[in-house]
């Protein structure tokens, strides 16, 4: 698909004027000695006196304030340029300690000496995210539940108490308010090209951060409070995030060529893409992703407006929504296709996913230890978009692939030998972090736990049968009969020839069967609220089942050791043997519940076809199953050990499940 690349700016005219022109209209020159002392102490009055307020409601007049602060920013920028690195460190370094990342601010000073546009933007993005995180730490000195949005944080009473309201108003002129320069948002959402951000605003925010450090020190000395920094977010289970192969030098070189010919990129944004790829090559993985994420958003915005024929939305589009403002269907998902949409939701939106942009833009990640694995996934995915949305009829694109054909000395294909593995991985991607995907993972993890039971050391069966009341127990036999009836009701939804009606559940509901069922693809995009509500309950049920399994394993191992050492009292021995008898039916019960959960997940979208009355009945039924599993956790805990009650509890639960299934109110029954 060919996309228009002639747009000169992604800033609306008012925002472009605010950022690129307004702060340059006044030509006043201010003596830096009136703004900062020789030892680097910020004179806040010399800054706050440039604030203007509306007469109507005394809120900040952002236009006049930006206009008035423009020359101050220029003076600060020139001041920093006049300092050597050593002078800057002596005067200012100590005032950045409150941010918990002093070296970042020293890096920004270095960037300002050369004012290379792309590096200035990168420095400003890192500065604003780190500043936001530090301000959140200050907020928590006297407040609870730090606001998620920067604008709410800056408008909070708590920060006004620490720094003063006029100081916070100055900050809001630069970041946090959509009516001001709003530098943080326009940068992190990919609206600006490198040349549109004046370096003097980066210098001013560096200066203000030092000034905030001075004010904070005064406040801490006065109150005796101690500033505590929240721990960084860490990415665990990185193997779950790996969807693409490791990028090598050759692939990155091809990517650099694609950047020049792809219609996915605004031409004014090319420097950002090249800088991102360079950062990856230099192992600066956080820098790479910080540069690339806003550009992915900008490219998707361009694709969104082209696909939906709404060029007026280029400056504001929210690309991943299901519907447009006029309630028409958003066509972007159909163009990107489901795997790409699932990747975007996984890495950016799903609560249990890495949520890379949120964590980076809010300063929640240690930039020094950002994992290569994560950066590799974002870069690889970006490369596939560059390739997919390049116009193959352009001369430049044809020349690129002719060069690749000659260099590879292999038969060229449309997606050629270097990019094809990435394209294949992108087309096969399945969500890992949607609640449906997480539930499937839970089911399999629980099954692995239950699968361990037969391997656990136990006393002989003769000892178990010696307990009075357990020999030929008709209640236990009744449980197996009920389970067989339930299984027969769902057998038609299982793979053909996987079992016969006479097979015991433990040989039918195996890890292999659940893996096969969980491998069935279920659409995860735009799951409606009823689906999500059902998934919440199913996940809780699965969690309780896993807890039961882990408790049983721990109890069996402990009691066996005590049995062998002959340290169990008579009552404990009796209870241990009853437990061994109970797990004969608990294992198939848990397996059956996991099977039913899996079948419900596969058909979960059918919940939307239920009438409101049937849906409420269904939800109530699921919650009753949840109640059963919660009680099971209690009864099988080391503190309770209520094995006789467990049997009675299970009997009632199986009757309820069988009867409900008989009425065909479950999702799988609804599918017929």
UniProtKB/TrEMBL annotation:
Protein name: ER membrane associated RNA degradation
DUF4209 domain sequence ranges: 131-211
InterPro entries assigned to the protein according to its UniProt record, in alphabetical order: DUF4209 (IPR025209), ERMARD (IPR039635)
């Amino acid at each position: 698909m060919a996309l228009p690349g002639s747009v000169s700016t992604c800033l609306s005219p008012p925002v472009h004027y605010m950022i690129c022109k307004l702060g340059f209209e006044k030509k006043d020159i201010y003596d830096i000695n009136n703004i900062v002392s020789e030892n680097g102490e910020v004179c806040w009055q010399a800054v706050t006196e440039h604030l203007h307020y509306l007469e109507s409601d005394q809120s900040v007049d952002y236009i006049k304030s930006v206009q008035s602060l423009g020359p101050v920013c220029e003076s600060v920028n020139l001041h920093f340029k006049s300092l050597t690195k050593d002078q800057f460190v002596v005067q200012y370094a100590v005032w950045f300690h409150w941010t918990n990342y002093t070296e970042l601010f020293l890096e920004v000073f270095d960037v300002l000496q050369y004012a290379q546009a792309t590096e200035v933007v990168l420095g400003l993005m890192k500065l604003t995210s780190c500043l936001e995180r530090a301000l959140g730490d200050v907020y928590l000195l006297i407040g609870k539940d730090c606001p998620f949005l920067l604008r709410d944080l800056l408008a909070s009473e708590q920060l006004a108490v620490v720094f003063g309201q006029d100081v916070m108003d100055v900050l809001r002129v630069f970041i946090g308010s959509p009516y001001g320069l709003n530098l943080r948002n326009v940068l992190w959402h990919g609206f600006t090209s490198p040349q549109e951000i004046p370096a003097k605003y980066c210098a001013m925010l560096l200066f203000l951060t030092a000034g905030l450090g001075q004010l904070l020190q005064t406040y801490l000395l006065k109150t005796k409070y101690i500033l505590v920094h929240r721990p960084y977010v860490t990415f665990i289970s990185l193997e779950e995030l790996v969807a693409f192969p490791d990028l090598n030098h050759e692939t990155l070189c091809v990517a650099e060529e694609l950047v020049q010919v792809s219609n996915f990129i605004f031409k004014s944004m090319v420097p950002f893409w090249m800088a991102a790829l360079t950062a990856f090559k230099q192992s600066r993985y956080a820098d790479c992703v910080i540069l690339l994420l806003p550009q992915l958003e900008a490219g998707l915005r361009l694709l969104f407006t082209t696909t939906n024929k709404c060029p007026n939305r280029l400056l504001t589009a929210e690309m991943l929504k299901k519907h447009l403002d006029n309630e028409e269907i958003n066509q972007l998902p159909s163009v990107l296709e489901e795997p790409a949409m699932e990747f975007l939701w996984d890495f950016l939106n799903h609560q249990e996913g890495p949520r890379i942009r949120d964590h980076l833009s809010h300063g929640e990640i240690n930039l020094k230890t950002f994992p290569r694995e994560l950066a590799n996934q974002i870069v690889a995915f970006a490369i596939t978009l560059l390739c997919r949305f390049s116009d193959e009829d352009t001369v430049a694109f044809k020349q690129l692939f002719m060069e690749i054909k000659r260099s590879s000395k292999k038969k060229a294909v449309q997606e050629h030998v270097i990019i094809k593995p990435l394209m294949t991985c992108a087309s096969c991607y399945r969500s890992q972090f949607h609640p449906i995907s997480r539930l499937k993972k839970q089911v399999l993890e629980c099954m692995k736990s239950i699968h361990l039971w037969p391997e656990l050391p136990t006393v002989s069966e003769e000892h178990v049968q010696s307990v009075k009341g357990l020999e030929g127990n008709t209640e236990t036999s009744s449980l197996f009969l009920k389970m067989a009836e339930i299984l027969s009701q769902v057998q038609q939804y299982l793979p053909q020839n996987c079992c016969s009606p006479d097979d015991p559940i433990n040989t039918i509901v195996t890890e292999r069967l659940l893996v096969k069922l969980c491998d069935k693809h279920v659409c995860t995009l735009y799951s409606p609220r009823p689906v999500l509500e059902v998934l919440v309950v199913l996940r809780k049920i699965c969690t309780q089942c896993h807890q039961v399994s882990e408790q049983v394993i721990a109890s069996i191992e402990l009691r066996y050791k005590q049995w062998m050492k002959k340290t169990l009292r008579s009552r404990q021995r009796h209870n241990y043997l009853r437990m061994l008898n109970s797990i004969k039916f608990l294992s198939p019960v848990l397996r059956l519940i996991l099977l039913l959960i899996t079948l419900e997940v596969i058909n979960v979208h059918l919940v939307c076809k239920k009438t409101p009355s049937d849906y409420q009945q269904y939800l109530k039924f699921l919650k009753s199953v949840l109640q059963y599993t919660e009680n099971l956790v209690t009864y099988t805990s080391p503190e309770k050990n209520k094995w006789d009650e467990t049997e009675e509890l299970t009997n009632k639960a199986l009757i309820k499940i069988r009867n409900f299934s008989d009425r065909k109110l479950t999702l799988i029954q609804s599918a017929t």
